[in-house]
Design brief:
108 residues, alpha+beta, Endonuclease, Chain A
Length: 108
């Protein structure tokens, strides 16, 4: 039996916040057929990414990573989703869950 890998600190924090607010979500979701892009979370029509390595010259902070992230976000919009991206710090500070709550409650 395969044991699932633990998510990053930011991912686990957001999952905890979503559960605490009773918000159903899916994790590691492929939204666009034919692409290997996975979204960290999907909440209704929100496609949510927690960007790791933003301060350590990780994949999201380099040119090729940024181009890939743009294509991924644009594909989600074309598929009818609203993409949101957060750093680990934004997730752990509560900014991410506050944004999500605002969007869901105000149906923005």
């Amino acid at each position: 039996m395969l044991i699932p890998k633990a998510g990053s600190v930011g991912e686990e924090t957001l999952a905890l916040h979503l559960r605490a607010h009773g918000i159903p979500f899916e994790r590691e979701v492929y939204l666009v057929s034919g692409r290997k892009w996975r979204w960290d979370f999907v909440v209704k029509d929100l496609a949510i990414e927690i960007q790791g390595g933003t301060w350590t010259r990780g994949g999201h902070s380099r040119g090729v990573g940024q181009a890939r992230d743009c294509a991924k976000q644009n594909s989600a919009v074309k598929a009818g989703y609203r993409p949101l991206a957060y750093t680990t710090e934004m997730a752990t500070s509560g900014e991410a869950i506050n944004d999500i709550l605002e969007i869901l409650l105000n149906k923005l």
